[in-house]
Write a structure and sequence with these properties.
The structure is a homodimer of 281-residue chains. Chain A has 13 helices and 8 strands. Chain A is of the alpha/beta class. At the A-B interface, helix 4, helix 5, helix 6, helix 8 and helix 9 of A face helix 4, helix 5, helix 6, helix 8 and helix 9 of B.
Chain lengths: 281, 281
């Protein structure tokens, strides 16, 4: 029997450290890599990044929008990238931030989390604006197939504060409610002592007090965008996440990808070493 | 110069009434239509629905998730459906509920709202969990190309209440904040007296008082899912939306699609007549 998604991530973080390489074929990066700004360029970009990441980090995170902008040809490129990444033993988080209700949400979960589907990934980022409960079909499907979900909980961008820090009937912030409800789902579905497969997206530069969330015993992985170009450093991982650091997947994109295709391997190695030093420090 | 998206919707609602036909190639509907549960089936389903809708209603709304579950082949099918619908003079709202920040959000807007892009639609539904401000790049791109956005404001599903009715620093609900901020964007971008191109998604069965939103002078179209099988009737349109009824796009899917390919035209005609009667009544 294959391990749950949560336990597979836990093992990957122990073996390879927290760095997750984003796969973001942004127009400007395609240009600086000498690739065409089309689906073929996005495919090459993704496959080269997978090659460089394989054996160096445990986790990669393709950003779906940068493939979707080329329509079906872009998604075909993404299918090749997802498949190559999984074949290379990388854990693949499809960053698509999908969110809907009922059978519509189920269809998104099917698309990304069904074994054998063209867009099969190991996990999907999801958006809880329609309520965490609206994602229950996706939780069930993920659980059934040993896949994972990362629910947006608190993001670092200032525009998000009004909504995410609003106070619900529970007296908690929207973000705190999301953490609580997702944690409860993990408790329902996972054996005691194991990590659950329903993770959180928590921005690396979020002010926890402002966000109304306290450090919690992380029952599942925390995907933390905002490392690298966006400002958070390897040392920040421990400073900001404290006792929760071991659960953090530190996602970096531009800080690594801007090294270009020839500098990519060195950029990843250097960054992995920095996280490792920060961990010992 | 082509009219703004908001003004094109206003003209379509006057000419054709409020009914918007959903294009939802759900697995069970493909089966009852005698189609295969694959991208080819979804394509046939979509094209037949477009044929039936053309000349009968002004607006169609393909549900992206039901195409996305077939991966790139599903999106290729959707591209054909979008293109056929636009060629038939229908206004096409891609119901994808995308939401992200910065250049990632821009890439989604590019994918769906750029003239000549494979997935070109007339408007896109978007998710404001990361803040309405995080969508500003999409607002700008839509404005530039005379396209539209529909921002999720209040949905009817009970799981959404905790989040959408939370109270922000403004003292308003999350939903009321969204309505206010999107209305302000319309005021910035649209000439006085014209409808703006940044619409709202407001569930047809929402209790407005509970949602903390008051009737407002609709400066832009309101996409209202929840008519038909989900419970709201043509008479409810006026009862629930009152002075705002003229701005409502009443979206129905299963109530029409379950008529099957041979019953589709009659089902649409009957439903259009009911909305028209309710309007006179």
């Amino acid at each position: 029997m294959s391990a749950s998604f949560g336990e597979r991530v836990r093992a990957a973080l122990v073996a390879r450290g927290p760095l997750c390489v984003g796969i973001d074929p942004h127009s400007s990066l395609l240009g600086s890599w000498g690739l065409t700004d089309d689906a073929r360029g996005a495919r090459d970009f993704g496959l080269r990044t997978v090659d460089a990441a394989a054996g160096r980090v445990g986790i990669v995170k393709p950003q779906v929008s940068f493939f979707e902008r080329f329509g079906s040809a872009g998604l075909a490129a993404l299918e090749d990238v997802l498949s190559a990444a999984r074949a290379a033993g990388l854990i693949v988080i499809a960053d698509a931030k999908r969110g809907d209700i009922g059978s519509t949400m189920d269809a998104y979960a099917e698309a990304w989390l069904t074994p054998g589907s063209p867009l099969e990934a190991d996990a999907l980022t999801v958006n809880p604006f329609l309520g965490v409960g609206a994602l229950d079909g996706a939780f069930a499907l993920a659980q059934q197939h040993d896949k994972g979900l990362f629910v947006l909980a608190t993001t670092s961008n200032p525009e998000a504060e009004g909504l995410q820090r609003a106070i619900s009937e529970t007296g908690r912030t929207v973000s705190a409610d999301i953490v609580a409800v997702v944690s409860a789902r993990n408790a329902e579905h996972s054996p005691t002592g194991e990590w659950g497969s329903f993770g959180f997206v928590i921005g690396a530069t979020v002010d926890w007090a402002d966000a109304g969330i306290a450090a919690f015993a992380p029952s599942a992985p925390i995907l933390a965008p905002g490392f690298g170009t966006q400002g958070a450093t390897p040392a920040d991982l421990h400073r900001r996440f404290g006792s929760m650091s071991d659960a953090v997947i530190a996602s970096e994109s531009r800080s690594i990808l801007s090294a270009g295709p020839t500098g990519l391997v060195n950029a990843i190695d250097a960054r992995v070493a920095q996280y490792s030093e920060a961990d010992r420090g």
